[in-house]
Amino acid sequence: MDRFRIEGPCRLRGSVTAAGAKNAALPALAACLLTEAPVELTRVPRVRDIETMRQLLHHLGVVSESTDEGVRLQCTGLPTTDDAPYQLVKKMRASALVLGPLVARLGHARVSLPGGCAIGVRPIDQHLAGLEALGAEVALEHGYVTATARRLVGTTFRFSNPTVGGTENLMMAACLAHGTTVLENCAREPEIVDLARLLTEMGAQLRGAGSERIEIQGVDTLGSARHPIVGDRIEAGTYLIGAAITLGDVTVRHAKAADLAPLLEKLADCGCHVETDADGLRVRAEQSLVPCDVATAPHPGFPTDLQAQLMALMTQAVGTASIEETVFENRFQHVPELHRMGADIRVNGSHATIHGPSRLSGANVMATDLRASASLVLAALAAEGTTVVDRIYHLDRGYESMELKLQSLGARVERIRSSPAA
Ligand code: UD1
To answer: C-alpha dihedral over 369, 230, 328, 297, to 10 degrees?
Structure first.
């Protein structure tokens, strides 16, 4: 297992380009199951979750090849199997995104239940209730979901809570359903809007993505598309927080202010200078940081995927900050590791209180999930001395070449590769 060795403290300065969003690329890859025509995706991030999804699609009969700019995929004829096995699904929950496309295109799907994950239970009951509402017969047996429908039929379905993956799964399924589907209480994340753009280019009749109500007029077939994946707002936000925590000056290109508004507002409240232009965002911090209070929420609220990174930042603010995690029930696993670096954080249920500023010092710490790992890297950039972050395969799931990007901003970060035998 690779590790990062980080020498702190440093000031990040310079500019980096955000990769395409992993969370937009994953449903876009799954959407290629909806057509026999070729789909070309550009700006696909080179991260491990994308490789996992490509393996799953390969298993389902999709031919994919890497191009200079991204990935070209084609599911000629029909998917060759309806089966998404546990070995692939357990690696990544987003594998469940093939469920809707498989039922819509093939009439049946057998997808392993994803099981628990580091940040909480994360059920897919809403995905299944939605498919049932569209007329699929859904059963659970031997750890697998089976869903069958000769042809899905449009209906009105209301999500009990806004779910990103659930909204994406049902959007894709409804594109090939008979008649009109109305989805209510949808998630409104920018990645959903990006998926809607791709589906529309493929010929889907869909409107309202980005609002809580999406209406889809089913069509018989979908065609080819060439689609650039939207920039990764979570990756961009991580580097902008990096500017703040190191009192540095970082510009992130290929990042949109509108997608990151809740973070940019908080950074401004903390005393950072925030500048935006058509293609990029710049954050500068020159003086001590002011603490702020944050509660995570579905978009357009503060993203849960930036909560851990913001907590690292609050350890450097002068005074007391509070963070409430409302989306996932077990997303404070970075806290014990931040304690080991000298942070003063108290957790009470879903609330964390952070007293700062703490003089962080380098330590050996363990990454537990993707965003928790990013918070440890950020803390290490502000800490005195050497931090070794173990298990960075979590980071590699979602951050493209993080060490290279940080090096280009002046950080002293190196990847220590584990020998195959270790
Ligand atoms: C996606 C993102 C993830 C992000 C999360 C919330 C991808 C690949 N992953 O995950 O990075 O942290 O959105 O912004 O896009 N829930 C149910 N029933 C369901 C589905 C979800 O109760 O059927 C609950 C979940 O347990 C969670 C909440 O709804 O508490 C939000 O989850 P959801 O939006 O579905 O997250 P994902 O799509 O899995």
So the answer is: 140
CATH fold group of domain 3-19+231-416:
UDP-n-acetylglucosamine1-carboxyvinyl-transferase; Chain (3.65.10)
Protein residue closest via CA to atom 11 of ligand 1: 305
Q: Is 117 a catalytic residue?
A: yes
Select from 128, 327, 397 the residue to mutate for testing ligand 1; criterion: most ligand atoms less than 8 Å from CB. Answer: 327
Q: Ligand 1: residues within 6 Å at CB? A: 23, 26, 93-94, 120-127, 161, 163-166, 187, 191, 304-305, 327-328
Q: Are 341 and 385 in contact (CB under 8 A)?
A: no
Atom of ligand 1 nearest to the CA of 298: 14
Which residue has its alpha carbon closest to ligand 1 atom 26? 122
Residue with tokens 């929420």: 297
Provide the residue-wise pLDDT of the chain in tens; the chain has 422 residues: 899 999 999 999 999 999 999 999 999 999 999 999 999 999 999 999 999 999 999 999 999 999 998 999 999 988 888 888 888 888 888 999 999 999 999 999 999 987 655 655 678 999 999 999 999 999 998 889 999 999 999 999 999 999 999 999 999 999 999 999 999 999 999 999 999 999 999 999 999 999 999 999 999 999 999 999 999 999 999 999 999 999 999 999 999 999 999 999 999 999 999 999 888 999 999 989 999 999 999 999 999 999 999 999 999 999 999 999 999 988 999 999 999 999 999 999 999 999 999 999 999 999 889 999 999 999 999 999 999 999 999 999 999 999 999 999 999 999 999 876 54
Tokens 């993707």 label which residue? 370
- Tally Cβ neighbours within 10 Å of residue 234: 24
Amino acid occupying residue 57: L
Residue with tokens 């799964």: 169
Which residue has the CA at smallest separation from atom 24 of ligand 1?
122
Q: Which DSSP symbol is given to 135?
A: T
Which residues belong to CATH 3.65.10.10 in the chain?
3-19+231-416, 22-228
Tokens of 109: 């799907």
Residue 271 to residue 193: CA distance in whole angstroms: 31
CATH topology of domain 22-228: UDP-n-acetylglucosamine1-carboxyvinyl-transferase; Chain (3.65.10)
Q: How far is the CA of 123 from the centre of ligand 1 (A)?
A: 8
Q: Using the atom order of ligand 1, give the atom closest to the CA of residue 26.
A: 8
Tell me which of 10, 32, 75, 117 is the catalytic residue. 117
